[in-house]
Amino acid sequence: MYVGIDVGTSVVKAAAFDVGGRQLAVEARPVGLALDGGRAEQDMDEVYGAVVAVLDALTARVPEPVELAGLTGQGDGVWLVDAAGRPVRRALSWMDGRAHALVGQWLADGTFEAVFRRTGSALFPGCPGPLLAWLDRHEPAALDAAASALYCKDMVFQRLTGVRATDVSDASMPFLDPRTRTYDNRVVELLGLTHRRRLLPPVSDPAAVAKTRGEGLPAGTPIADGPYDLPACALGAGVTAPGDGLLIVGTCLASLVATTELDLTGEPAGLYISTDRPGHWLRAMPAMVGTAALDWVLKTTGVPLADVDGLLAQTPPGAHGVRVLPYFASSGERAPFVEPRLRAELTGVSLETTPADLVRATCEGIGHAARHCLRAAGLTGSLAVCGGGTRSPAWMRLLADVLGRPLRIVEGEVGARGAVLAAAGRHGVDLDAAAWTRPAAIVEPDPARAAYYAGEHEEHLRRLGEARERVRG
Q: Where in the numbering of this chain does the Carbohydrate kinase FGGY N-terminal domain appear (predicted)?
């Protein structure tokens, strides 16, 4: 049995696979996210407790020996721990917006662009650089008490194994030089954090491997740390050839394209994620909000999630003129541009507007945001899609039409699957990657609807440009 652990923002999962990649069982536990005035924090003990709980439940259900485990999880944020790996304060989530003023300052004074030109990482409020700088100004005692500023999966890895480390994928945002695959101390200096440099965990390249200490998994189980959830999903979906892409329709709407070219001259946005293969990167455009935008609309209208497919069938493309700019995050947007003050817009609504119109317009808006991101990321090959949104066949047909291309639908626990494949590569275990990443279905676009949405996409970009001008004042 091979076990993949995926420590998500709202749900922690563990999945068991056999040698051929067949998913045997999944266990999941929800975890809290405390939202308050643009701040987003998580209880580390709750998150780690959920990891142990899902592993205990999974190994009880599938009592086969665990040959190997792989770990992945949400990226960015700041997870401050002491030398024993215990929390110093609650974790600051990647969704946290408290550092937006700092990012705005760095946009204005050139720091933002200088960092991008060195690392390929476009700073956004919820990434470690701005959050650490904010803490240094407002909560220096927390940094003084900490031994490490970790990423989520690295906190779990240290608790499971006692090893303090991160990998090149998590370190890519925002301190890693993608050419040397080591921290760029000039970037640390630019962000005013040289005196906090000791907090950055060692970058293991290749990813760290260790043996568990007996919580959740039997003591001595081999486990690998990383990559984090975006590149883990790319591995789990079989996206490794240059030009091929992955769209993750989850809480975050993440667009990734595999590449062997490192171009740090374009518009500063998104990031280059280093992979376990030197000279290979994922050009990532992780928009802040994906299914979370639809969740908000459903909650606001009182429509249950189970009704989405039926509602999409009740209103035509264009949603009777209702349009949504789906930038709902309190920290603004980070891809394929950075605009900390951008907010969602809902237009074309009248007394005749129905819940079906609102749902379709939101799904269309998310699709247009994805198309924008994928184009900026350089998609030229096939496109795989995974995430919670794939559970809606109607939304996937709509998405194929909006994107104007076929979708390879990858189901199951794709991040956990990728974590196992990464661990297997690190431990020298030979698994058939093609069998492990075979798509469940191919969704083709309708030519007439695709042509309609091509025009609508230009309108989306025009309205987005106007919205960006307004927030810039």
A: 1-236
